[in-house]
User: Which sequence fits this backbone?
């Protein structure tokens, strides 16, 4: 299916071909067209639905960005490198850009920014309209199978045929949600043009699995704030996230789990003894809980826990600590009290896997930022090639951070090309 964009372009002689019509690709196309209206710009996308990731993001509402974005919210490349790109197109510019497109954004308590329409279609339609206005042609499904350098030009080929372009932007995404079109093909195209890919390509922002008989799997549907902490083999804290956690029939999901997933999966490959722990009462210290348990007197463990946690979870924690829920506090031994405190605040999670790229919201890994000129997003390896979005070795935490990277890197590629 081809979009009915202007026919004034010479389809066989485009100046710029952008591969991928996701957030970064559309952003690059819009700004390339605005910067030089005389350029012939074509986007090729292999998916049958344009902007599928935009449409499913934020539960169909599209979490466009976050009120406060900092390089510390990202992993992959160095913070200095990531910040260099983010500074060129900041949150205030994102808000202004979408306002100019007719999309007003609203900020929620979490700092996330959504369109006031609460519809991702609003965002996608505005981007497509802006691309149209910039005289960009979008062709899909047009999966690109190969790119070949021909002197100072590129030959872009697929089952649909081939075209020659002066400049190419790789905005194919990573490997997450492959049904949306980002199935890892971009990595192969980049490698064919001389680029390296990080040794590890991992799912990020992905739910984690527990053994089917784990008590958490029986608490499916339960949502509450927790702290998830990643610990090294010597017990040292590596990273922690406090946020909403969702118990599911397969294990754990929710913002805290999605945020820590890439760190857990990566650390586990370095050291199998790395563990993930959960604190069910993140607003209290271990010392506070221990004191409260010491002063329970005739109050039962279940009553104490149920005052702060759902009853199903309270009973499960007692059972895990091998304590009767109706046990009065004064009968707790010192050893039992220590065990219960550990069960509440630092329960080890026997993670058995993750839900994979088909569910992951983003990809960890990609083209190293050292191979990209971060002033322009131009390749340092292949003249005339530009890279932006998720194909780069940058992944952010949940909350609009990955979109902000897409807007910023796409903008830079667009004005530079």
Assistant:
């Amino acid at each position: 299916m081809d979009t009915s964009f202007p026919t004034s372009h010479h389809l066989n002689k485009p100046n710029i071909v952008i591969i991928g019509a996701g957030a970064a690709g559309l952003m690059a196309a819009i700004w390339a067209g605005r910067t030089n209206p005389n350029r012939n710009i074509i986007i090729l996308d292999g998916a049958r639905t344009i902007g599928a990731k935009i449409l499913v993001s934020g539960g169909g509402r599209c979490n466009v960005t976050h009120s406060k974005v900092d390089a510390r919210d990202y992993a992959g490349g160095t913070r200095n490198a990531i910040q260099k790109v983010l500074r060129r197109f900041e949150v205030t510019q994102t808000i202004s850009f979408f306002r100019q497109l007719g999309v007003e954004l609203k900020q929620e308590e979490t700092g996330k920014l959504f369109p006031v329409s609460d519809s991702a279609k609003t965002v996608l339609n505005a981007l497509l309209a802006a691309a149209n206005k910039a005289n960009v042609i979008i062709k899909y499904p047009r999966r690109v199978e190969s790119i070949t350098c021909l002197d100072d030009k590129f030959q872009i080929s697929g089952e649909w045929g081939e075209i020659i372009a002066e400049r190419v932007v790789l905005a194919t995404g990573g490997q997450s949600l492959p049904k949306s079109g980002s199935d890892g093909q971009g990595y192969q195209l980049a490698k064919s043009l001389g680029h390296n890919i990080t040794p590890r390509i991992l799912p990020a922002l992905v739910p984690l699995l527990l053994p089917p008989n784990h008590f958490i799997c029986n608490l499916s549907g339960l949502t509450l704030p927790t702290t998830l902490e990643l610990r090294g083999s010597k017990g040292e804290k590596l990273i922690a996230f406090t946020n909403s956690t969702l118990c599911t029939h397969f294990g754990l999901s929710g913002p805290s789990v999605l945020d820590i997933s890439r760190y857990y999966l990566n650390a586990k490959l370095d050291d199998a003894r790395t563990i993930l722990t959960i604190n069910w009462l993140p607003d209290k210290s271990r010392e506070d809980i221990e004191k409260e348990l010491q002063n329970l007197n005739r109050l039962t463990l279940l009553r104490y826990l149920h005052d702060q946690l759902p009853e199903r979870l309270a009973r499960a924690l007692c059972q895990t600590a091998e304590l009767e829920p109706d046990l009065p506090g004064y009968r707790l031994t010192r050893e039992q009290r220590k065990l219960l405190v550990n069960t509440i605040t630092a329960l080890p999670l026997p993670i058995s896997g993750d839900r994979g790229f088909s569910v992951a919201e983003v990809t960890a890994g990609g083209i190293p930022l050292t191979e990209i000129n971060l002033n322009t997003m131009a390749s340092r390896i292949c003249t005339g090639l530009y890279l932006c979005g998720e194909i780069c070795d940058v992944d952010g935490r949940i909350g609009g951070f990955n979109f902000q990277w897409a807007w910023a890197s796409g903008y830079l590629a667009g004005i530079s090309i």
About this structure: Residues 76 and 177 are 19 Å apart (CA to CA). The domain at 16-201+361-416 is CATH 3.50.50.60 (FAD/NAD(P)-binding domain). Confidence is low (pLDDT under 50) at residues 3-10. The two ends are 27 Å apart (CA to CA).
